[in-house]
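Below is our example:

___
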Amino acid sequence: MDSRFGSPICSRLIALWLGGLMFAFQCWCNAQDAMVTWSPSASPGVIGYNVFYGLSGSTSTNEIWAGNTASITISNLVVGDTYFFAAAAVNSSGIQSPVSGTINYLVPVPTPSLSITNITGGMRVTNSMFTVMGNATDTVGVANVFYSLNGAPYVTASINGAQWNAILILAPGNNTLSAYAINNDGGISATDTVAFIYAPVAPLTVQTNGEG
């Protein structure tokens, strides 16, 4: 078999090899960065690789020279957009192999975390007005925290740094509080829900007859 890089047989083998092994790249993708990996070509004279990427369906792509390595990290991807990635080998004569098959990657929207910190399930509260507190954090910043008491429409809580709070007017007996956070990219946290009890304190009146 002709082993020259530019031969149709050799180039076809490189393209298939790169294309098949690049499908593992999503294992290393995280938020706005993507580490694209591939297996080095076995063809002689290969000095490096070109990596191509762009928005899915776009006719124009970005091209990055990765050098003689088997991976490259591409940063500053836009959350919520879908990108495609491909690669090609280049030999010492500047000849490039056919571009590998593409892989699509949807950059995930980061999700915040939220917790209710001063109420636990089954907890008894003795005041009808209660201030609930919790934590809400995210790498891109928390925009809002919303809460609902006993199935009422969600309303906005107060945020101070990584902490949030809201004043609740409780109904006697069982109460259920739910809360969730939204970050600056529109990511939504899981909803934290806790059921607790408002047990009003009733005055005890004792009536005596005579000297008791």
